Amino acid sequence: MTALMHLAARSLWNRRFTAGLALLSITISVALLIGVEKVRTEARSSFTQTVAGTDLIVGARSGSIQLLLYSVFRIGDATANVSWESYQRITSHPMVAWAIPLSLGDSHRGYRVVGTTNSYFERLRYGGNRSLELAAGTWFEDLFEATLGAEVARSLGYDIGDEITLAHGTGSHSFVDHDDMPFTISGILAPTGTPVDQSIHVSLEAIEAIHLGWQSGIPIPGQEVSPEDARSQELTPRSITAFLLGLESRAAVFQIQRAINAYPDEALSAILPGVALQQLWNLVGIAENALLVVAAFVVLAGLAGMVTMLLASLSERRREMAILRSVGARPVHVFGLLTAESTLLGITGAVAGFALVYGAMALGAPLAQASFGIHLTPSAPSVRELTLLGMVIAGAALAGAVPAWRAYRLSLADGLSIRT
Amino acid sequence: MSSDSPQSIIALAGIRYRWRPNAPVVLDVEQLDIAPGERLFIRGPSGSGKTTLLGIMGGVLTPGSGHVHLAGSDLATLSAAARDRLRANEIGFVFQMFNLIPYLSVLDNVLLPCRFSRKRSERAAADREPAAEARRLLARLGLSEAALLTRDVAELSMGQQQRVAVARALIGRPGIVIADEPTSALDVDSRDEFLELLQEECTASGAALLFVSHDVSLAHHFDRTLDMRMLNRALDGEADSS
Hints:
The complex is a heterodimer.
Chain A: H1 2-14, H2 16-50, E1 56-60, H3 64-72, E2 82-83, H4 84-91, E3 96-108, E4 111-116, H5 118-123, E5 125-126, E6 130-131, E7 134-137, E8 145-148, H6 150-156, E9 163-164, E10 167-168, E11 183-189, E12 199-203, H7 204-210, E13 214-215, E14 218-219, H8 227-232, E15 239-240, E16 242-247, H9 253-261, E17 268-271, H10 273-314, H11 318-326, H12 331-372, H13 383-414
Parallel strand pairs in A: 4-12, 8-11
Antiparallel strand pairs in A: 1-16, 1-17, 2-15, 3-4, 3-10, 3-16, 5-6, 7-11, 8-12, 9-11, 13-14
Chain B: E1 10-17, E2 27-34, E3 39-43, H1 50-57, E4 65-70, E5 73-74, H2 80-90, E6 91-94, H3 106-116, H4 118-124, H5 130-140, H6 146-149, H7 158-170, E7 176-180, H8 188-205, E8 208-213, E9 224-227, H9 228-231, H10 233-241
Helix pairs in contact in B: 3-4, 3-5, 3-7, 7-8
């Protein structure tokens, strides 16, 4: 068998151009397959890490996936708000350990502005049980101070003390600005690999202040308020977008959830982030599976290319087969030689594709972190990835049976007679 | 001499062969014995059934009737795998041209039979390592430069290629070397030199030599000459019917 592997390797090397092309198609297809799998698991673990420490997410009544997406991941918008009174009453429940209010709806150059309190900085957990840290400066204290996520500061080149103005709405180009009330950057958070990196944090009162003199989302002409005036006004928020709850005991989660869902004064939804994520995965799973199926078909195409290459080579290799027969190779050896060639291509392609994905991940981790906030952790290959690799290699060996069978038949028919 | 004589390296008796059950007989040999160490020339133009004859001797083709004994074993009693093994053990082949596997080095080409036949590997290793034996044979055939041994076989001249093929046929001391038109691609000078070397080396290793060629001018180099047209009675029938 080692003799056959040696022969197969030399034979492939001899046809390294065509074999290389077949190898390339297998490598790329395997890289695609493993890449799809990798992105799937990495995205999931990134999302899961983001909601790690929160017991309940509360917002206006809506689907749990929607609530999860806009409150934690800053994707999409809320349909309605939660009144400040409801927030006060729910968070005064004895089982509530902490609460993080979130007031969304404004932005700065495409990055979401989050109105919140100190509890955001103190209580939010990510990636297991890590708390937020400041890379520079302090968490906002003054009404017109803002604390930036790491990515916002990095990509927009902001530093402590810079002034920014907020825009109403969440698009990157807004026509309605809050340019009458600039904010000073008080601090920059350390990178977390979560949407925190892409958020601009200000106080709830600041959100209230910049909307003074506004009605239904537009400024009323003639009612503009200066920052100085704003400071003297009553800035207790009337409503917030959503809030995160941490409970004294996890055992109370369902009790509190029921109480909030049955809250008499306002239509509210309380969701368990883990459950909502699971629902999200079920939804996204269809697309993920479709991607995996596409990747699997690309692998099939790669293997088909290899079979074509091997089959095409057979006619010019009949002489070689006859020579091998004359020195004592049996037809089964000829079969074995072709299968060994396809298996070698499969193994090399699978390993190369694998290396390509892991190499790209190592090189692209900073980029993925920066552009998508996806934190790619260098990790050992999962069992599932290794299973996929095994399947590709087995598939290559199996696909090799097609040219191998043909070579076997040819060598039986040709015997020792040399035909070209 | 009886067909199953233990002295014969190859003995054919009453061989009749057709490609398909109802096809005409293409080979009909009553008797052919080759003694160990004998040098036999078979003269055969193309179409005279010599390829079929070699296939039958090598156990690749199975005759419809008759018996083939190779080194004392009746091929009919052996499985296909055992026939392949016996062929690998006892026969070294040299073909007309392009005898070598293009993607193996000269040395690896010579060592090929040792990879498929344990017996030849053992016999080659009896005195020295198989690779050393391969180098010795190549040196005896005038291919001693170290650079040559690892060179791409496609870069060798036709004469060099044929000598490498002889080294391969001889390694591990098979009972017989069957050479099928090995000189037809060589010019006259290298042809005589090649023939001499082939004979010398077969004698040195004790192998019988079966040399098949259409070129009757080579016949005088051999102990015995047979004409395919005499040997193969199927050709007579064809001549009669035409």
